[in-house]
Design a protein that fits this description.
Layout: H1 2-23, E1 36-41, E2 47-52, E3 57-61, E4 66-70, E5 74-82, E6 90-94, E7 97-99, E8 108-113, E9 123-125, H2 128-133
Parallel strand pairs: 1-8
Antiparallel strand pairs: 1-4, 2-3, 2-5, 5-6, 5-7, 6-9
Length: about 170
């Protein structure tokens, strides 16, 4: 009976290792993307930021705080929702910007969330439906080929284990 239980534990361990690899493919781990984008909220209101590009994120940024995400190289823009109650939300879309990564350099980008006259990152108002209907996981044709679809492959439930070895009990235990 003990051997049957250990066989189950072995199967469960293998299953969870494979499931973990499927859920977190090595190609999209943060350490593969040293580029960072920091959202610094100085707007006077809570903000919800959608980063749209090869690496999509949705980030809540309370007023007076900042949040940082890792991102793959590519073209991005942000959608931002300001406010704490739905009837008073304000929405904006920022201009496209580029995250650059080469063998020798990577990007560290900081975006301050507030209205600044003559600032260095232009935004314009958008509708609530544009904000709500834009998915953070796609960017049309510019999306990274390796990130278009992640379909976990679960192994079949039949795993062949080596045959059991049965050892006879010593004479005095019979």
């Amino acid at each position: 009976m003990k051997q049957g239980r250990s066989g189950f534990n072995f199967f469960a361990a293998i299953f969870f290792v494979i499931l973990g690899l499927c859920a977190n493919p090595p190609s999209i781990h943060a350490q593969d993307n040293p580029n960072t984008i920091t959202f610094d909220n100085q707007s006077g209101e809570s903000a919800l930021v959608k980063l749209i590009g090869p690496t999509g994120h949705t980030v809540e940024v309370p007023n007076g705080e900042s949040r940082t995400v890792n991102a793959a190289a590519g073209e991005y823009y942000i959608l931002t929702r300001y406010g704490s109650t739905p009837k008073q939300y304000k929405y904006s879309r920022g201009d496209t910007f580029t995250v650059v990564q080469t063998e020798r350099e990577y990007s560290i980008i900081s975006i301050t969330l507030h209205k600044v006259r003559d600032g260095n990152y232009d935004t314009h108002p958008i509708s609530s439906s544009e904000f709500d209907n834009t998915s953070v996981s796609t960017q049309g044709d510019k999306q990274s080929e390796g990130l278009k679809t992640l379909t976990p492959v679960i192994p079949p439930l039949t795993i062949t284990l080596p045959p059991r070895t049965i050892f006879p009990l010593p004479e005095e235990e019979k």
